Amino acid sequence: MPDDNMSRAAFVLIMWRMMGMPEPNGAPIFSDIEHHGEVVGKAIAWANENGIVMGANGMFDPDGSITREAIALILWRFNVQKGGADDADPAVFNTFNDVSSVSPGVEDAMSWATYYEIIRGSEGNMAPQGTATRAAVVLMLYRYVEGFWGGIEGIPGLE
Fold it and tell me: What is the pTM of this model?
């Protein structure tokens, strides 16, 4: 359902499919994804090999709901990995009331995501710790694809 939260595994699976489901070089390194099956394991292994997801303490938390700042960080890393823009004018980011609630180390990604309007926020807040519904993820991915790939035609996985 569109108002359901999206899991971290589902988001990475979408990114992997957008890239045409490339084979990872090795097995997943995270100890908490074995029950998700081969396809999800390949997606997460690919994302980790490419520096798009890092996990923490050998875990990925695949069933955890993805936060808005995690989406920003994954898209930012993905964009950099593809040779795209990684910088942004922090002036847009600094207009939000909840800048101080962004996790340490995620500021550049959130600045980038707000500058390029992937994350627009609401009522002066970007809600970085807020979970993202499936509908919100679609909107953020649409903005990313339109802004950086020139529309749906630019998605490699759709060739």
Answer: 0.92
